[in-house]
Protein 1
Amino acid sequence: MKKSIVLFLMFACLFIAASAEDTIKIKRPVFVSLQIADGFVTPTSNIVNGKTVMPHVTALSFKYGRSASGDKWKDGYYGMPYWGIGFYKPFYSMRKDMGDPFSAYLFQGAALKTFNSGLSLNYEVNLGMSFGWNSYDALDNPGFKALGSSVNVHVAGDLYYKKPLSENFDLNFGFNVTHFSNGARRTPNYGLNSVSPLVELVYHIDGKKPSPHINGKKLQPPLFEKRTAHDISFFVTDRTISLDTDGDDPNGKYPGRHFKVAGFNYGYMLHNVRRFKWGAGLDVLYDEGGGALFSGDLSEKTGKYMETVNLGNMPERISVGLSLRGELAMPGYAVFTHLGYDILHGNKDSKRLYQIYGIKVYLTDNLFSSFGVNSTHITRSRFLYINIGYTFYRYRKK
């Protein structure tokens, strides 16, 4: 997982730079918060699907962040966005099997709708790394197939209401969904998901709550020009896979070899409103693990376990898919999701229907990088990637 951690840290630096591009120039409101979430783990593998007791989870999150100052039209238009760093500590009822994990993550959120009473409906997304899991082991922990590594990616989302309590304090209440996965950097990797109601107390350190008003007036955005965005991107990564074997060796199904993955993506996106993009795209994928055959046994010479993998032919490694795409656009970055289907499906061990989701950061007006997850079954990751791409804009005639 060292490569995944490096990739994430690289992208984290880009995300922070995009989110807080002029924090140095403007003193922004600072806040800290403590969140308590209490819920359950959803079924993904034998240890969490009802064949054993479904784990209960209680989680604490501590956050440090900054808010938009409200002195720009973007602040009010985009729901007074905020961002920062957080620390997440879950407590599972099945601690012996699952371990004692914790996470460090980046977060970003904003208001979706503000009501006259001061109450507001908000969202928040988290992206980070988690550590300390008791991962799958063929001998010591064979029942826990949700996670194949002790270090995993942490992805979460909150949907909540915010209620102002005083000049310094806010109370948030809503729901949290959290997902852990290693992006198939190590199999098995069914993923671990939890759903929990949440309560959060927010303290604004200097008593300065952000407001999108200057001298009592809300700044109006400039006229938006409709345009078409053509996105082109490339990536190279790797992953492990699960393979069927003829033997009874418990290690056989999950070989340690990493298979190369490369992809090309083209997206045709309509940007008719400032905050959203939608459209369709083409996804071309090369997966070295497609059609691979595996055998594993003890070496007669060394007595050590040896793996032999025979790669499939080239047509089994190539897939071409069509996808529907949507992006929530923010200043400097976007949260995106793709729903795709392979029309040319080389890897028969994978599903034709796939999903891609992640965060895109614009390094310039056109050049971008994305940190994303390619998955099937919504939560079952095939691989993680970080790409580089370019957007060509074409403005439409009025």
Note: Residues 245-251 have pLDDT under 50 and may be disordered.
Protein 2
Amino acid sequence: MKSGKPNVVVRQSQFRSKYLGNQHRLLAFWDKSNNRNTLVIATHGFIKKTSKVPKNEIQKAEKIRSEYFASKK
């Protein structure tokens, strides 16, 4: 496994979609621990109702990411 801090869930790691006037967001992070492949893991999705991604959604994604990397040790 690669050493160093796992990727942080940030604004760039979200997938966006707009359907019937609703903005959908899917938060994700990258697992680059394999030298040959990168695994993209979607943590969860939600309908965005404000201009910013709610902090609780980011915290939820960060918690899932932390649990994922802790389980790989």
Note: Strands lie at 14-19, 22-31, 39-48.
